[in-house]
Every structure is written in structure tokens, then in C-alpha cells.
Amino acid sequence: MTEPREVADGVEEVAPGIWHWRIRNSGIGGNVSSSHAVADDEGGCVLVDPVRLDESLLERLPSPTAIVLTARCHQRAAWRYRRELGAEVWLPLDASDADEEPDRRYAEGDRLPGRLRAIRTPGPEWPHYSLLRDDDPSILFCSDLVMRAGDALALVPAEHHEDPRETRRSVERLLDLPFTILCLDHGAPVTDDPKAALRELLASTA
Whole-structure pTM over 0.70, yes or no? Predict the structure, then answer.
């Protein structure tokens, strides 16, 4: 996967120990690609599906110790940051070969760095995961199921998915998970009642 050429020039703290940044990714038609960092228990942080962040801003975050990719299609700047920062890259066990060999593989239910738990959310493809941090606040990092469309949520367009009906079922299953903040791979986080936003999305697309 080609690394996006854009570099994010801003970062925001979504909640204590959780950071978000995003770019307008020319590789996907100028649509938003978002990334996150999660503080770990050793004073460092875990990068989730990272696009590049301006170096001066990255230096303000805790030192990255791991990179977790929710799917093969979100390699983004992972290999660059492995080389530059020495952070291990984690990829789903059943994902097809990536541009480089990951340091570690994970499967459904596994506990990952940053107190993240792997939740299989198929639809975009079978080896596709979201990540749950069931802490306080509880946060779900949702990969390619939904995206921000202005102030509302939208399903990622069906033509990008292996099984759009399974995508919808995955979104429905998200409502059973304990989270109060929804972080997306395509758009700004939803911090105000994200489950209500998901229910509204499901109702409007029924």
C-alpha cells in the first residue's frame, strides 16, 4: 500500500491519553484518513493506523512503542515509523501479506498494547478489526465500517466492501460493546453519545 504523501499538521487530545490527527488523503480522492495514539502503561504510546504527523507534533506525544493496524489496507506510515521509531507493527493474523512483514500478529479477542482488545468487524473484508479500550472513558476505534459525513455518520460506500450486508451487521454488533467515545479511521471522533449516532445511521439506512 502506498503511504499517503500528506502530513497532518495538527493533533488533538480526544480524552486523557488519547490523541487524534487526520489528513485529506489524495490516494483516496481527498477523503479524510484519521489516526490515533493511545497512551500505554509504560509511559509510551501505541499508534493506531497511523498516517504521518508533523515531526514536531509527534515529538510532543509519548514515545511510540507499538503500531497496531486494524487491517492490511491501513498500513499507511506504519513501516516508516517502524524504521524511524523502532516500534513493533501488529497486523491481523489472517491478513494477507503486507508491504513488509509485521513483528507480531493478533487474532479476535487478543489483548494488544495500550490495553486494546481486538474485535473482529467483517464486511470490508474478513480480516478486519476494530479495537476496544474498555477503560474510563471507554473508547472504540472503528476501522472502515462508518465515516463522518459532516456532523453525522455514514456507512463507508458499499463498493469498497467485500460484503456490505456483513458491514451493516458489524455496525449493529458495535452497539453491544461498552464505549462512550467512537474514534474513526475516516473522520473526527464522536464524543457526544456515539451509540445514538450509530442508531440514527442504522435507522436512516434501513
Answer: yes
